[in-house]
Design a protein that fits this description.
Helix content: over 70%
Distance between the termini: 84 Å
Number of helices: 6
Order of helices and strands: HHHHHH
Mean pLDDT: 83
Radius of gyration: 28 Å
Structural class: mainly alpha
Length: about 150
């Protein structure tokens, strides 16, 4: 009698989870050790990146993908995933995406004005607190210092 498909899928999931957990812990240990040797960390990382892209280039060559097509396909993939901007601008776009924040260019005029009003209120409140502190200092007897 053959095992049920749901049992096979559950077993595959358990195996995948075990492999994933093993490599996740291995990564943590390797990063911990390499972080204490920045130059070695940089060299290992650079070799890894170079080998990765060599493999990508070799696969593209084997598949018969020429330079212009590879460029267009890569550009399209990076544009669709948002990685083109993130790679050349920074990780802030990815972080704002996780937080579901808008980009500054997407903020409306009203949102920008509301933010400016909040900043002005905070500045006024800070000024008021500073004034109160100075007033308390003046009222203190000379032998007690704040």
């Amino acid at each position: 009698m053959a095992p049920q498909p749901s049992v096979i899928i559950a077993d595959m999931y358990k195996a995948w989870k075990a492999v994933y957990t093993y490599f996740d812990k291995l990564e943590d240990r390797v990063r911990f050790r390499l972080s204490r040797r920045p130059l070695l960390y940089a060299i290992v990382g650079a070799i890894g990146v170079a080998l990765l892209w060599k493999g990508v280039d070799d696969m593209a060559t084997q598949l018969g993908i020429d330079g212009i097509f590879a460029f267009a396909l890569g550009l399209a993939m990076m544009l669709v995933t948002g990685l083109l901007v993130a790679f050349f601008i920074g990780d802030s776009i990815i972080i704002s995406g996780f937080k579901k924040e808008k980009k500054l260019a997407d903020d409306t005029e009203a949102e920008l004005q509301a933010e400016e009003v909040r900043r002005q209120r905070l500045a006024a409140e800070l000024h008021h607190i500073e004034h109160d502190i100075e007033e308390l200092k003046r009222r203190q007897p000379p032998h007690i210092r704040l």
